[in-house]
Design goal:
Layout: H1 2-39, H2 41-48, E1 50-55, E2 58-59, E3 63-66, E4 71-73, H3 75-91, E5 96-101, H4 107-112, E6 118-119, E7 133-135, E8 144-149, E9 166-170, H5 175-182, E10 187-191, H6 194-202, E11 208-212, H7 213-222, E12 226-229, E13 241-243, H8 247-262, H9 265-274
Parallel strand pairs: 1-5, 1-6, 9-10, 9-11
Antiparallel strand pairs: 2-3, 3-4, 7-13, 8-11, 8-12
Helix pairs in contact: 3-8, 3-9
Length: about 290
Amino acid sequence: MEKAKKRRFGIIATIVLALAIVLGIAWAMQTAANNSKHQDTLTRVEKRGQIIWGVKADTKLFGLMNTKTATPEGFDIDMAKALTVQISKQTGVPMSASFVPVASASKIQLLKNTNIDGTISTMTITPERAKVVDYTQPYFDAGQSLLVKKDSGINSIQDMNDPKYTVLVVVGTTAAQMTKQFAPKAHVIALQDYASAMQALKAGQGQAMSTDNAILYGFATENPDYHLVGGVFTKGPYGIAFDHDQKPMVDQTNRALDTLKKNGIYNQLIKKWFSNVPGLDWHELEVKS
């Protein structure tokens, strides 16, 4: 009797083990299939006939939601559309562009999850991010700048190097650190968000607001008494990002970007979005032939 129980137990254990092996193999095959799909962005977009771009929906001039049309508008959006058209020409595969709003904290994870194929969203190229995503060549030369009142008499970050001046920045950015590097004597106040920093600037709690020039451009267009000064005193170029190991997609996008710069479309978009920004010589953003 005891031997029979052991025999049945042995048979059951063998069946369970066999099932585990089969399920494990199936899981591994599915994972491999998912990874393969995950790793080949160009093949995926060609098969779908569509590139899903992650874009900002709250950054004026680059990606801002139009509440009337419920679609994002801005330089990044137009660039994504133009790149999609050009990549379609290069590959011979008709493709359309669609857009998914992303936040700074979510866009890399959305790439990893393949919820989006690429992101063009005022994303600064950094060594840390380059470890987990693939960047194209820079498509916009951003950097930290200053927004001041037009009659302030302030012309550069060097003018702020005095204890009587206060620079307003936002918590969680590198603006405070970089401001102290270039104007160590300036007093720096960090606010919770950009809207609060702008309100503080208007209220006279500081003489300048400092962050990415791309963000300041947006505030300048909405506040005609203020303008950007001094150009940029840091370098933080924006790149288009894809998931890691996406060389075919990155190569196609770089090729498309080069074409847009050569055929004048890039400069047309620069003029469209930045020619009316107070204090900005938008010609400096143009690609020189």
